[in-house]
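ligand=iron/sulfur cluster
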Amino acid sequence: MGRRISPLAARKMFRGRSLFMIRNQKTLNMGREEKMQKDQPNIVEKAKHLLKATARHVADGMKEVSKNQLDTRLSICNECDLRDGRTCTHPECGCSLIRKALWHSEDCPEGKWPKI
Ligand code: SF4
């Protein structure tokens, strides 16, 4: 026959486990944030990516997406872990999301945007 646990002891165990899980989750989040910061492109890489994106935009006839397409793209970015404010922090990007989402020639480096 198993040992009986009093409701008070069960509550204490559960509380202890919750705190452990919360602490563990914080540690995981810290590791993830540090990794994201480490993987972010530096200023020189960002400038290179912007130049390449601008060249693609000009070669594409400077076409922009429709308002609906822009809203769809930005709503996907809003849910993305790689968005930092108005910037995409993907290692292959680092661009302003408004400009990136508006330009027809651009695509999400993670392939999250619908094809146009
Ligand atoms: S462009 Fe893609 S990777 Fe970058 S923030 Fe938007 S959804 Fe995320």
